[in-house]
Amino acid sequence: MRVLLVEDDPLLGDGVKTALIRAGYAVDWLSRGVDALAALKTEDFSVVILDLGLPDIDGLEVLAEIRRHSRLPVLILTARDAVEERIRGLDAGADDYVLKPFDLQELLARLRVVTRRSEGRASQELILGGLAIDEAQHRVSWQGQEVILGRREFALLLELARHPDKVLPRSRLESLLYGWGEEVASNALEVHVHHLRRKLDNKKLIATVRGIGYRLDSRVA
Length: 221
Ligand code: CA
Fold this sequence. Notes:
binds calcium ion; 8 helices; WalR-like; alpha/beta; single chain; 5-stranded parallel beta sheet; 4-stranded antiparallel beta sheet; globular
């Protein structure tokens, strides 16, 4: 999953970004509202973490602009004493909020809640036939056997499993695996898919759609 983090506090932003990457998310971190809006126009994100106190435009304005176009899950960060701001954020379409200062584990838990709610799932476990993915525990089992995956393999499998039978374009999968500023080797995606197929000991679950991308075949799962 690719997260857009909009936070102007350098220490906090850095801490959140690190925690998200460790949890298996691809993260793009921006500190200005206008940059966030520009990025949202051109890039594909799964969820936004939005600080409401930004240096240029109000975070609520960013939220309103997002809601003009999409239902993308948005988690807002607000100060503990800013009750009115929080209420306005929820009224403006935020999916949930976290009060600063927050515990990083709580932020990650809230993030999982808003993303799975946006998918209409009640449980943190995503199950497709013999494939079970536990987002919170970062565990994957296939045909009853636990499979140990690297964080990019995990992110890739989770994204494919969140959209079963849909062809996900290469560019989208690559942008999910890596934020901006990270070099992506031209064959990196193939390498990760190859590893996934080997670890799952199945070549058909993740189908290659030549010239376009990959698709997780739910009939195989
Ligand atoms: Ca701020």
